[in-house]
Amino acid sequence: MRRLIPPLAALLLLTAGCAPPRTGTLGPAPAGPSPATTTATGPTGTPSATPHAPRTPTTPATTGTPPGAAPTGPEGTLTVQLWFARAGKLVPTRRTLPATVATSQLALTALAAGPSPVETATGLSTLVPAGTRVTRIAGEVATLVPPAGFDTGGAATARLRRAQVVWTLTQFPTVRRVAFAPADAATGRDDYADLLPPIVVTAPAVGERVTSPVTVTGTADVYEATVSVRVLDGAGREIGTAFTTASCGSGCRGAYRLNVRYGRAAAGPGTVEVYEVSARDGSRINVVRIPVDLAAGR
């Protein structure tokens, strides 16, 4: 038996060397115990045994909702993603609208119409004026004819306005880039990726009715890719919390998805907070607050 020990030890060492690399400490976890059972899930939607999710780097072009068919709503409707502005950055929300063949123009018209009163209360606004038209889509490039004065307000404002249009239109599979007539070069999401905040929340949307567990999705570029979420009831009490890791972070943007269970909540107003825990002092930073309509928790 003694002769078998060295080969067995070598085999164990080789197996250990093949284990996936760890990133080290995740930093401080969200402070305070949670009164509810929570589930953190990885990008696949399956519960994670540990807070370490697979780290597949993504490019800025795949952040937010990737180019693809917009989600379908009830029969005869179409749910589209609209990218509004807040504090100089791009912020997504959703609209369910009557279905039409001209989906790009439908989204553009909704974008120009601006945020709802509930969305406006969270600081969302639009810089896109009415009258901006899609005249042609060919070779995955949408050509627009903007109205007079489209680029007024200074270079930064004009760029954010264009970014709203580009990020909204490139959700559709037929559009990868947008050209503004008469002679501007076509641009895509990558050209405006710096206008994304550290944490983007694509679900839930402002004012959405949610049930436990609430699914939270988006993208983030945060310390060690760690994204934290808590659910607050109408009185501001924490009733659920969880955290997970995005597919990339600390200098690159990755996607995240997790389910957060909450309890002891009466039906009514609530808030989903998505944030980063500061590596320096454990405080909540880069907080995104989404007002929601909570279904009663169990």
TrEMBL record:
Domain of life, source organism: Bacteria
Source lineage: Bacteria, Bacillati, Actinomycetota, Actinomycetes, Micromonosporales
Region (Disordered): 23-76
Keywords: Signal
Residue ranges that the Swiss-Prot or TrEMBL entry lists as coiled coil: none
Entries under InterPro entries matching the protein: GerMN, Gmad2_Ig-like_dom
Pfam name, any one: Gmad2
Signal peptide: 1-21
Stated name of the protein: Gmad2 immunoglobulin-like domain-containing protein
Sequence ranges assigned to domain GerMN in this UniProt record: 104-191
